[in-house]
Specification:
single chain; disordered C terminus; 5-stranded antiparallel beta sheet; 528 residues; alpha/beta
Amino acid sequence: MPVADTEVEVLIVGGGPVGLTARALLERWGVRAFLVEKHGGPSAFPRARLINTRSMEIYRRLGLAARIADNAFAPEFGRVRFRDTLLDRDFATAAMAGINEPIPESPLVGVVTSQDRLEPVLLAAADARMRFGVELIDLTEGADGVVALLVEHPRGAEIHVRARYVLGADGAHSTVRRRLAIDTPGPGALAAITTVVFDADLTRWCADQPAGVYFTAHGPFLPLYPEGGWAWLTPTPDDTERADWPGLVSRALGPGADIRADVLRVQHWVMNGFVAERFHRGRILLAGDAAHAIPIIGGLGLNTGIADVHNLCWKLAGVLHGWAGPGLLGTYETERRPVARRTLRQAVANTELMLDAQSLRREQLQSSGTAPAHIELPWSEQFFAQLGLVLGVTYRSDAVLTEGSTPPGPSGTSTDYVPTAEPGRRMPHLWLTAGRSTLDAIGEGFTLFTPDPARWERQGTAPWPLRIEPLPGEHTDPCGLGPHGALLVRPDDHIGARWRDLPPGDSALRRALTAITAATGSAPLGTC
């Protein structure tokens, strides 16, 4: 292997929100990371727009939720509106559950914001090393690590970094994934889209009817920041160099608008849909768009990537700190890839339903020349709720101990969400005291929730990081526990094991931790 100029525990390739979140999480779990990003700085485009409830729970643990919310839109923008043009009245509207108002299933609401407002908050969230303008060229894996060849732009200087593990979070066109020759089955390129960022005074038509997205016959319009700014999404024209972008925006706003748009930036991109056939090879792992590209309708893509690294980073920490075996890392793909596939199917369905609503409107206009003021949307109230995708993910892997004789099935989810304390599910949000949720009680290690802490304190848990949290008696029934039962919750908030009552003997907890963390008899990640 080449001689390294520097050594780290984890090299993160990609400085978007997923890579930056991984950097902050790894620092929280005591892992030395180094992040490189080929571009010269953070994104100047709004890109991702929605931070959902689950992602805000993760950011709350990092101490970032309040800052993210301060930079975001007010809750009433958690809504989509359908109009013939932006200057017309709504003919349909739908709320985004968990965004527009609080929900009982979480201590937090999601927010509508822009990626260029999120990234500076994530940059400031950790002190771990990072470099902009540094591009990955090659990877060479050995028995105990990976050497990455990097090039620093614009000087062209080469840098060799040795890492125990490499995390590729470098987007849909991932260099890391290409170097691993991992295929990306799925719909592929779905549409060529241009995002036009512009300024215009649209207060008259939108101030009293706020929304995160206005879907129109001429493309979606999105307010960018609370203080102003807009984006328009449109199919990319054949001749982008000669396009009159201010004129195109003005015409798309509606006939007779007499509004001149001040175009600030234009970006051309391709909306993709795929899930990589593998999320790792050896010591190199993929997350976010490098592992799965999710169409934008529904705001699922970024949030799926945040959940990826929340699942992965505690496992990396466990292996690197010695309280987990390498086999634990194999459960990352087992748990997250089925979720990505289900999310991709839902995002494609979201897109089809949105197009159905616009098609229905066109049919009404064509048939009579006029259309009713409102139409019934071709979906249920759950379309933009999708809390099952957000809060109801179920993990099935060797890192989850199923109850009784139930064999481990595939990880997955549905669009419906019913809180439950079954192994594999996210720990339900329950108030322990005023303002303190069960989710707030989960730390960097494992957490054991029990109404009988004294009994469980007798069980030895070294070397695993674990704390015991008293569970108030009124929460035992919702969690399916008897007076001496317990829930063992992993550092990513998912339940690893449940004992409905005190098990016989004093080694049950130790055996569970051994099994969940693959602490003995583990196969190396590369052979999983």
